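Lab notebook, design round three. We kept the backbone fixed and only want residue identities now. Task for the bench partner: fill in a sequence for the structure below.
Input C-alpha cells:
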C-alpha cells in the first residue's frame, strides 16, 4: 500500500476585519453603525467594540493624572446586553488620596420605525458601591437596550497616583475594530513600558512636547507624547492548553522606574536583581530559612548519610522529606512559616518544605538552590526588572554529577526529578546569594507518553474477546496514579462507565508504588454488543486517545502551551479464525506539522488472517506559537478522524 504523506502547510489566513461596514474611525455614531446588525468575521460575537480611545495626561493645574475614556459598542444580540453594564473601579489610599470619575456621558442609539432614537443616561442612574476598604465601584447601565443598539459612553478618571500610570487593555471578551491609547508623560517620571500579549501594534508614534508642564517655581518639564493603536482585535476566548489569560491579553502596562525631582534628586522605584538578592537574603521566610543549619544526623538515617553515590543519596533525602512532611496547600511563599514550625508540626507551606529539602541536600554536600516560580495560573514573572510579588511558589534545583534536577517534595506522587504540572511556566529565578540569582528553564525534560496495546479475537462462534495493556509515563502516568491510588475500588467502575460497550474483567495494576515513574495496568474485555453477521465493520480504536478536537476557535491569538512534549502510541491486533476474511483495512497516513514539530503516523498491515494497526502521535514541542494554531487545529482534526472513522471490513466465508 502506497504511503501517503500529507503536509499541513495550509495557506490559512486570519480574520480580516477591514471590510466591515461599521465606522471605526472615530467615536461619532453614523447610520451604518446602527443599521449593520451582523459581524461576518466573527459570527459567534454577541457584541462588538467599534471604536474606543483612552487619553492620559498630567493636568496642568493640580498635577493629577487625567484619563479620558471613550467607548462605542454595537450590541448584536440579546446575549450582548451585558456590555451595557459598566463598572468603573476607583482606588483610594488611607482615606486621603483617592481616584474619582466625572463627566460620565452615556447614550443608546436605536433604529425605531425608520428613525434613529437616542436615549441618554440619567445622572440619577449612576451608583456608587463600597467594594472594599480600598476600592469603590461606580456603576451604571445604559438605557433602552435592544438587539441592534449602538451604545456610547465616556468619562474622565482623576488619579493622584502617578506611581501607577494608567494601563490600557486592547483586547477583551468581545472583538474590537479599533482601540487606541494616547499618553503624555512628563520627563520627571520614567516608566518601564511593557506591551503584553502576542498581537502587534498597528499604530505606534512618539514625539516630544516642549514645556508641557509648568510648576509654580518656574520650572518646567517636557512630555513624551505617544499613540498606540490596534486594529481588528479578536475576542479573547480561553481554550484548553494554555496558562492564565493575563499572560496573553493584549495590553500595555506601566511600572514607575524613577522620579526626577527639580531639585536634582532622583528616587528609584524599581531595583536591579542584585539589590533584590540582598533583600531576599535577609527576608524571614526565604533567606533566613535558607541560612538555617540543619543537622542531617538528627533527621536522616545513617544509611542515607553514609551513602556514597550522590544521586542515590539525593533521592533518599527527597523521599524522606516527601514522606514525612505534609504540604498544607498554601502557596504564599512569603508568609511566615519557619523550618522550626515545619519540624514541630510536620506540616507547612510550599516554601518551608522545599527549603528544608534544599538545606538537607546542601548539608550532605549536594549542591542545591531554591528557585522562585510563578505557577501557570499566576502568570509569567516579569523579566525586564524584578517584581518579587510575581512569584508564588518555590522549587529546588539540585546539581548532581553535572546534571540538573528540579525537585518538589510537596506532592507524594512525584518521582525524583519531576515537578508539578502547575510549575511548568517556562522560567524561574534561581537564588544564589553568593554568585547572584539567574533565570533558569523549568520545562519538563523527561518524556511523557501514553502507550496502549490492544488485541481482539473474533471466532466463528460469535464471540469477540480481547486484552488491553497500558503504560503511561510522565504527567500522563502522574494523573493516572493519583486517580487510582486515591480510590482503587472505584477505578474499575470508572473504566466500565467509560466503555459501556465492553465487559471488563481481570483488572491488574502493575504499578505498586505511588512514586513509580509510570502507571501500568491491564485487563481482559468482551465486546458486549458484538453481532455475528455476514459482514462486520470493526473500528480498531476501542480505546481512543481523543474523541474530539480540543481546538475549536476560528482564531487564537495566544500560544498553545501543553507544558511538556507529548507522545501517544496505540497498537491493535485483530485475530481471526477461518470463519472470516479481511475485505479491507484502513489506508496508511503520515501527517506532519510545519518544521517537523509534530507527526501522526498511521499504518495498517494484513498478515495471514490478522490485521495489525499502529497509530502514533508526537508533539515534539511543549509550546507552539499562535501562528501554529491553524495547523494544530487541522492536525487534531485528522487525529480524531483517524480514530473515529477507521474501519476494518470483514466478510464471513
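Proposed sequence:
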Amino acid at each position: 500500500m502506497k504511503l501517503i504523506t500529507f503536509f499541513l502547510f495550509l495557506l490559512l489566513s486570519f480574520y480580516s476585519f477591514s471590510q466591515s461596514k461599521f465606522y471605526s474611525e472615530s467615536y461619532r455614531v453614523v447610520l451604518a453603525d446602527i443599521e449593520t446588525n451582523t459581524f461576518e468575521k466573527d459570527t459567534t460575537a454577541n457584541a462588538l467594540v467599534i471604536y474606543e480611545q483612552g487619553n492620559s495626561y498630567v493636568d496642568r493645574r493640580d498635577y493629577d493624572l487625567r484619563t479620558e475614556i471613550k467607548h462605542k459598542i454595537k450590541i448584536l444580540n440579546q446575549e450582548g446586553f451585558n456590555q451595557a453594564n459598566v463598572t468603573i473601579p476607583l482606588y483610594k489610599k488611607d482615606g486621603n488620596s483617592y481616584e474619582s470619575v466625572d463627566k460620565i456621558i452615556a447614550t443608546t442609539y436605536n433604529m425605531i420605525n425608520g428613525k434613529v432614537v437616542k436615549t441618554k443616561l440619567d445622572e440619577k442612574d449612576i451608583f456608587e458601591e463600597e467594594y472594599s476598604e480600598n476600592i469603590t465601584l461606580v456603576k451604571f447601565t445604559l438605557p433602552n437596550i435592544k438587539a441592534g443598539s449602538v451604545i456610547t459612553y465616556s468619562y474622565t478618571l482623576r488619579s493622584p497616583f502617578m506611581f501607577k500610570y494608567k494601563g490600557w487593555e486592547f483586547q477583551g471578551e468581545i472583538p474590537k475594530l479599533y482601540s487606541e491609547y494616547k499618553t503624555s508623560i512628563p520627563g520627571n517620571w520614567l516608566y518601564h513600558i511593557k506591551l503584553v500579549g502576542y498581537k502587534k501594534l498597528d499604530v505606534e508614534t512618539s514625539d516630544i512636547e516642549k514645556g508641557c508642564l509648568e510648576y509654580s517655581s518656574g520650572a518646567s518639564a517636557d512630555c513624551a507624547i505617544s499613540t498606540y493603536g490596534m486594529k481588528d482585535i479578536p475576542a479573547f476566548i480561553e481554550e484548553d492548553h494554555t496558562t492564565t489569560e493575563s499572560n496573553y491579553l493584549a495590553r500595555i502596562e506601566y511600572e514607575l522606574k524613577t522620579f526626577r525631582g527639580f531639585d536634582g534628586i532622583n528616587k528609584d522605584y524599581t531595583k536591579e536583581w542584585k539589590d533584590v538578592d540582598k533583600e531576599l537574603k535577609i527576608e524571614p521566610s526565604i533567606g533566613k530559612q535558607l541560612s538555617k543549619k540543619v543537622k542531617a544526623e538528627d533527621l536522616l538515617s545513617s544509611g542515607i548519610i553514609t551513602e556514597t553515590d550522590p544521586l542515590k543519596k539525593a533521592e533518599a533525602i527527597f523521599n524522606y522529606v516527601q514522606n514525612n512532611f505534609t504540604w498544607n496547600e498554601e502557596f504564599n511563599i512569603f508568609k511566615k512559616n519557619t523550618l522550626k514550625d515545619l519540624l514541630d508540626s510536620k506540616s507547612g507551606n510550599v516554601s518551608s518544605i522545599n527549603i528544608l529539602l534544599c538545606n538537607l541536600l546542601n548539608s550532605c554536600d549536594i549542591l542545591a538552590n531554591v528557585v522562585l516560580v510563578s505557577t501557570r495560573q499566576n502568570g509569567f514573572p516579569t523579566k525586564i526588572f524584578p517584581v518579587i510579588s510575581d512569584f508564588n511558589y518555590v522549587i529546588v534545583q539540585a546539581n548532581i554529577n553535572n546534571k540538573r534536577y528540579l525537585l518538589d517534595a510537596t506532592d507524594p506522587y512525584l518521582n525524583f526529578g519531576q515537578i508539578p504540572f502547575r510549575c511548568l511556566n517556562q522560567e524561574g529565578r534561581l537564588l544564589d546569594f553568593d554568585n547572584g540569582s539567574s533565570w533558569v528553564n523549568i520545562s519538563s525534560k523527561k518524556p511523557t507518553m501514553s502507550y496502549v496495546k490492544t488485541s481482539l479475537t473474533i471466532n466463528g462462534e460469535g464471540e469477540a474477546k480481547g486484552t488491553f495493556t497500558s503504560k503511561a509515563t510522565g504527567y500522563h502516568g502522574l494523573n493516572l496514579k493519583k486517580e487510582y491510588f486515591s480510590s482503587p475500588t472505584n477505578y474499575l467502575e470508572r473504566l466500565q462507565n467509560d466503555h459501556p460497550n465492553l465487559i471488563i474483567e481481570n483488572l491488574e495494576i502493575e504499578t505498586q508504588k505511588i512514586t513509580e515513574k509510570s502507571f501500568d495496568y491491564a485487563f481482559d474485555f468482551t465486546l458486549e454488543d458484538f453481532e455475528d453477521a455476514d459482514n462486520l465493520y470493526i473500528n480498531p480504536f476501542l480505546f481512543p486517545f481523543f474523541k474530539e478536537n480540543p481546538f475549536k476557535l476560528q482564531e487564537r491569538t495566544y500560544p498553545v502551551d501543553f507544558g511538556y512534549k507529548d507522545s501517544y502510541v496505540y497498537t491493535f491486533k485483530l485475530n481471526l479464525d477461518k470463519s472470516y476474511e479481511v475485505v479491507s483495512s484502513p489506508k496508511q497516513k503520515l501527517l506532519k506539522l510545519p518544521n517537523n514539530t509534530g507527526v501522526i503516523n498511521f499504518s495498517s498491515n494484513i498478515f495471514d488472517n490478522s490485521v495489525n494497526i499502529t497509530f502514533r502521535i508526537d508533539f515534539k514541542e511543549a509550546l507552539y506559537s499562535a501562528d501554529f494554531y491553524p495547523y494544530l487545529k487541522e492536525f487534531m482534526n485528522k487525529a480524531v478522524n483517524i480514530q473515529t472513522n477507521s474501519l476494518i471490513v470483514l466478510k464471513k466465508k
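Keep this in mind before ordering anything: The CA atoms of residues 17 and 165 lie 31 Å apart.
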